Amino acid sequence: LFGSLYFSWYQKEHSESESIHRIQMAFLHLFIVNKSGGLIHHRSLSPRAPQIGTNEWLRIGSTFHSLHAIAAEASPLKTIEDGIEVIEGKGIILCCFQTRTGIKFVLT
């Protein structure tokens, strides 16, 4: 579901050759963060995913929650309060889907 949502958005934003390149990338991790920044769940989705300890996952979840909240407040458009939706870097894409209840599903 998340992959198809991201791919449909990515097709609209990028050329066909770039989207074909991106779909070959696999998801590495899924983590779910509650509305107060606590890590609810994390799972490695690929054998290529770096192995991270539990304390590091808790730290990553709360840090991402804080960055997401800052991005929502710092948005130049006051009508948009979504925070971080996609971060793209060389070799990695991070997608965040936030529910109406504030739970965030984050895929890397």
Automatic annotation (TrEMBL):
Q: Which UniProt keywords apply?
A: Endoplasmic reticulum, ER-Golgi transport, Golgi apparatus, Transport
* Source superkingdom: Eukaryota
Output one GO BP term. endoplasmic reticulum to Golgi vesicle-mediated transport
Per the record, GO CC terms? endoplasmic reticulum; Golgi apparatus; TRAPP complex
Q: Where in the cell is it found?
A: Endoplasmic reticulum; Golgi apparatus, cis-Golgi network; Golgi apparatus
SUPFAM superfamilies with a match to the protein in the record: SNARE-like
Q: Which SMART domains match?
A: Sybindin
Q: How does it assemble?
A: Part of the multisubunit transport protein particle (TRAPP) complex.
**Similarity comment: family membership:** Belongs to the TRAPP small subunits family. TRAPPC4 subfamily.
Tell me the protein's name.
Trafficking protein particle complex subunit
> Taxonomic lineage of this organism?
Eukaryota, Sar, Stramenopiles, Ochrophyta, Bacillariophyta
